[in-house]
Amino acid sequence: MVKFGQLFLSLTILITLHEFGHYFFAKRYKCRVEKFYLFFDFLFPFAGLLNFSLFKKKIGDTVYGLGWFPFGGYVQIAGMVDEQMDKSMLEREPEPWEFRAKPAWQRLLIMMGGILVNLILGIFIYWMVFFFWGKSTIPVDKLANGIACDSTALSMGLRDGDMVVSVDGTPLTNLKRVEVEIIMNKATSMEVTRGGEKITIPISEDNVSTILRNLKKSDFIGVRMPTEVAEVTKTSYAEAAGLKKGDLIVAVNNVSTPFYHEFRRELTKNSSKEVEIAILRGLDTVKLKSKVTSEGTVGFRPLAEKYYPIQEFKFGFFESLKEGVGDGMENLVMQAKQLVVIFTVKDAHKQVGGFYSMYKYMNEEWDWQSFWLFRGFLSLVLAIMNFLPIPMLDGGYILFLLIEIVTRRKVPEKVLYYANYVGLVFILALMIYANTDWLRD
Prior knowledge:
This protein is of the alpha+beta class and 441 residues long. The protein contains 14 helices and 18 strands. It is elongated, with a radius of gyration of 26 Å. The relative contact order is 0.13.
């Protein structure tokens, strides 16, 4: 319920503020706003099906309401071809209060309103998060035991204990950035130090594809740390076996596992079985018998904070603004690159996710810092997605308006109407594909 609550609140905030951007400029230029809805009061995208509201109230010319179909929201502006696909207005002359009667520059600002709000909101959220909480990195040169590699990293030639230096010649200081740099820039090599010697690891297109494909399942590389028990889960197999806080796990079924990723690897091999776990407890070596869940766990939290060399940065009010703008702009660039990756990296399209993927990303415990960071990220994602020049999206309207401004000739409303039908089919197909991510997981 906590994860669902975070997702619901996130979408509610972002959708409402996005639509308010359109509403603000429409009212500013004296367009009649007929509806302002959070969620759809019909079976989107079929405007004529199952039309009803959970709540609605008319104030002035506008009906404010809460729809029953929780996948978006909309502002219905008089004289505009929108989600309702109202064709009747094409048969009459525009009224002064209609969208289509306004100058092109005003219509452009009305359509840009939602995107502008998403941009400003995303950067503002980053600003406030950095001001109140600061930001953290995992410096690659501070890893006492080097990196821990998954099977993909090992197959590429990386080894447990390596120290990352650079990706494609760009020096890296933050371990969290390694996968991002490889995937987004389609890197061809990375440099590490091993036993004091510098080694170049080639990265193929298939490697990039595999790293991306496994991103949701495992860390490509992570912090190599001992398996020290921080907390044992109540009523778990670990508690039943007698595992205690402070225990240091060193082996599973006589296979040496001095580091946590090796321990996890052995548990995965023995999912749904019973294993013998060797631990160091003070000066004694103790062996325990424990069952393993089908997910390859026994039920404890490792003492990660002891071995993660997290570097914290704190910022003043205006310093955090600079950081927020910088991170916001970087995320916009990354989102644009991600669109390129989807079409240029093998099987990248399979990573396109919908509400299920967003739900999985949520924390099981409410964490305001993580909550707002994700809200800022998601706001910028919505800005980029809505800017795509696809009919039915804001970017589609913006494209036609830019054509009108450049050519000084208005695109016929019938062209807009039928272009929106094409966009509707495309968006519907994309929604269906994105929200079948649970089948591809």
